[in-house]
Design a protein that fits this description.
The protein has 2 helices and 22 strands. By secondary structure, the protein is mainly β. The chain has a single domain (9-355), classed as 5 Propeller (Tachylectin-2, Chain A), CATH 2.115.10.20. The protein has a 5-stranded mixed sheet with strand order 18-1-22-21-19, with no helix packed on it. Strand 3 and strand 4 form a beta hairpin. It starts with 21 loop residues before the first helix and ends in a 5-residue tail after the last strand.
Length: 360
C-alpha cells in the first residue's frame, strides 16, 4: 500500500507552544484554558462529517517483520508530534514510539521499539500517554494481560520508560471475569477530574467498565470496576476513550463493529465521568465516525474501517484530557478493505480524520 506523499493544507501541524518545565506546563495549560473560554457544549454537533488523509504510517522494512501499526496515542508539544502505537504480527504485540514535526515527515520517522526500554519484551498493546501533573511524570498506560503502566520524566527519552506495574495487583477483577465470555480484557484509558482518576476498560463482549482512585493515591488504590455502559457485543466493542470539554462536560467514544463488518465509532456526552451517558452520534445512520460520514482526500478510499484511535491532543496533554471542540483531529487505524487472514497479521496503517465543525 502506497503511503500518501501529497499533503493538503489542512495537514499542517498545529504548533502549540508547550514548555518542558513543570511551572511552564502549568502556564501553558492555563493559556490553553483561556483560549477555550466561552466555548459551550453546543459546539459539539449532533451530526458529524470528516475528511481523512491517506495512510500516513505503516510498518518498516527493518527486520522486525511487523504486519500492522495500530492503536495510536498522540500528543503535540512545541509543534512536535509524539506517537506511541502497538506493533502487531503473528508472534504477538509490543509498542513503538516515533516523533515528527510535520505530517509530511510521518512516514519517514524512525521507530524506537519500546521492548528496548525497561518497559521490556512480551505482550504490551493499546497505549495511552499523558502528563500526570501531581507527579511531574509521563504515564504510559497499556494492556499486558492486566491494566499496566510505565512512567518516564522525559517523553523525549524513549529508553526511560520503566518496567510495567499494574493497576490491579490481584489480577483480572471478578466482575470482568463474570461478564467477559469469550471476549478479551482490553483498551485501558485513564482520565482524571479534580478529585479522582478513573480507569476505563472493555471486554469485547458488550461491557464498558470504570474504576476509580483519588488523585492523591493514583496510580494505587484502584477500586473494583463497575459496569459504566452495556450493549450488544458488536455495538459496544472496545477502544473507549473519554475527554473533558471546556464547559465541564465529557465526551465518550467507543468502537463498534458495524453491520457490514467494518469498525466505526459511537459517541456520548455526560456531566460527570461516572455518567450517566447520553447518546450524541451513536447509530450507523448517524455515527460519530464511520465510512458513511468520512470523505477521503483525492477520493481514494483506502479503508472502510475507522478503528482504534485517539483525538490528537495539543495545548493540554495532562490527565484531564481536555480537548478543543473546534479543533478535532482523530488519528485512527485503517486497512485495505480487501485484506483478510489472521487477526494479528492484518495490515493496519495509521491516518487521521479532521472534523470541520460548522458551529465554530
Amino acid at each position: 500500500m502506497r503511503l500518501l506523499t501529497l499533503f493538503p493544507p489542512f495537514l499542517a501541524t498545529c504548533a502549540t507552544a508547550f514548555p518542558t518545565s513543570s511551572s511552564d506546563k502549568s502556564a501553558a495549560a492555563a493559556s490553553f484554558l483561556s483560549s477555550l473560554s466561552g466555548r459551550s457544549n453546543s459546539a459539539l454537533p449532533t451530526r458529524w462529517e470528516w475528511t481523512s488523509t491517506g495512510p500516513l504510517v505503516g510498518p518498516k522494512n527493518d527486520g522486525r517483520q511487523i504486519a500492522g501499526i495500530k492503536d495510536p496515542t498522540v500528543i503535540v508539544i512545541n509543534g512536535t508530534h509524539h506517537v506511541f502505537a502497538s506493533t502487531a504480527q503473528s508472534a504477538g504485540y509490543n509498542l513503538v514510539y516515533f516523533t515528527f514535526d510535520d505530517w509530511s515527515q510521518a512516514s519517514e520517522a524512525p521507530f524506537f521499539y519500546l521492548d528496548q526500554a525497561p518497559l521490556g519484551t512480551g505482550y504490551r498493546a493499546a497505549p495511552q500517554v499523558f502528563w500526570f501533573a501531581p507527579h511531574n511524570l509521563w504515564y504510559l498506560v497499556y494492556q499486558n494481560g492486566n491494566a499496566a503502566y510505565s512512567t518516564n520524566p522525559d517523553i523525549n527519552n524513549p529508553k526511560g520508560w520503566t518496567a510495567p506495574k499494574v493497576f490491579y495487583p490481584n489480577g483480572t477483577p471478578e466482575i470482568i471475569e463474570q461478564n467477559i465470555g469469550d471476549g478479551y480484557w482490553v483498551d485501558m484509558w485513564v482520565i482524571c477530574d479534580t478529585l479522582d482518576c478513573h480507569l476505563f476498560s472493555s471486554d469485547d463482549n458488550g461491557q464498558l467498565y470504570r474504576s476509580q482512585t483519588t488523585i492523591s493515591e493514583f496510580p494505587n488504590g484502584m477500586s473494583q470496576p463497575v459496569i459504566a455502559m452495556q450493549d450488544k457485543r458488536n455495538d459496544l466493542f472496545e477502544a473507549a476513550c473519554v475527554y473533558s470539554l471546556p464547559d465541564g462536560k465529557y465526551l465518550l467514544l467507543v468502537e463498534a463493529i458495524g453491520s457490514d463488518g467494518h469498525r466505526w465509532f459511537r459517541s456520548w456526552t455526560a456531566d460527570s465521568i461516572s455518567g450517566p451517558w447520553q447518546g450524541l452520534a451513536n447509530t450507523e445512520q448517524n455515527p460519530w465516525a464511520r465510512s458513511n460520514n468520512v470523505g477521503f482526500e483525492g477520493g481514494s478510499v483506502w479503508t472502510k474501517s475507522i478503528s482504534h484511535g485517539e483525538i490528537i491532543r495539543h495545548g493540554s496533554v495532562d490527565e484531564k484530557m481536555l480537548i478543543d471542540p473546534c479543533n478535532i483531529r482523530f488519528m485512527y487505524q485503517g486497512m485495505d478493505p480487501g485484506a483478510g487472514g489472521e487477526y494479528n497479521a492484518l495490515p493496519w496503517r495509521l491516518g487521521f480524520i479532521t472534523h470541520n465543525n460548522p458551529a465554530c
